[in-house]
Amino acid sequence: MSRDFSNSHQWLSxxxxxxxxxxxxxxxIDECARRExxxxxxxxxxxxxVGLEATARQLRAHGMQLSGxxxxxxxxxxxxxxxxxxxxxxxxxxxEAKTLGAPCLVLVVGSLPGTTPGALAxxxxxxxxxRARAExxxxxxxxxxxxxxxxxxxxxxxxxxxxxAERACVNTLEQxxxxxxxxxxxxxxxxxxxxxxxHVWWDPKLQQQIERAGAQRLLAYHVCxxxxxxxxxxxxxxxxxxxxxxxxxxxxAVEAAGYRGFAEVEIFSEHWWQQPxxxxxxxxxxxxxxxx
Length: 292
Known about the structure:
By secondary structure, the chain is an alpha/beta fold. Helix 5 links the parallel strand 5 and strand 6 (about 155). Helix 4 (about 80-100) packs parallel to helix 5 (about 130-150), helix 6 (about 175-185) runs parallel beside helix 8 and helix 8 crosses helix 9. Helix content is about 45%, strand content about 10%. The protein is globular. It has 11 helices and 9 strands. A 9-stranded parallel sheet has the order 3-2-1-9-8-7-6-5-4.
């Protein structure tokens, strides 16, 4: 039976991308604490802007938890030097996640080199998804070795197929779990998935794969909504209850599989970024109670 969210938002977490255009991270933490939001999931660039140690101190002062840390990944590269640079960066991300007390480091695994957001050319160095997926597999395996030593679980986030070229060549929960089973066959808890409703809601195998994942693999759960029409495939996510995702049914499936963590609101939205941050957070609380 699903947990009752209708009278409390104790299991609400805010992914800090949701109000990143309104406030810096330290203000986001204070505003969440003011509303008794118990958890956030911050992004590395936001942490860097405020300072890693300063962020850790502020979180401790508010007694605030993390539901995850964004993000590691982006493993594929044009050459050996690029592959090593990705591994080095993921090691730093693991260390940052550990300092902040995150329960997991979320991996957006990457895909065709040269198409990554921010790349100057915007053209792929190569077009073989098979090669990209092999480099992702090898990269996660290498990161997992270090992550196990320091005790930081890694959570593979499958992304919608629309982002298969630029952001992630792992596009279904089944793909992500296949990697987990290959690299962590003992289900040690060191490797699992971050399940984002926006990316997986369409998948006809979703129910089956959630059951397959179980509590040991379900490390994070992200919510927002899919608008119809969607005007921008990256930055037009909907507030929960404004779109077509059956969020209550999805949470019921996730919780039936054993998940008992936070429901993390992650909304990339030009519309919501233009609203006052206070309104955004207050709406997140209301929709967490009524729509999630």
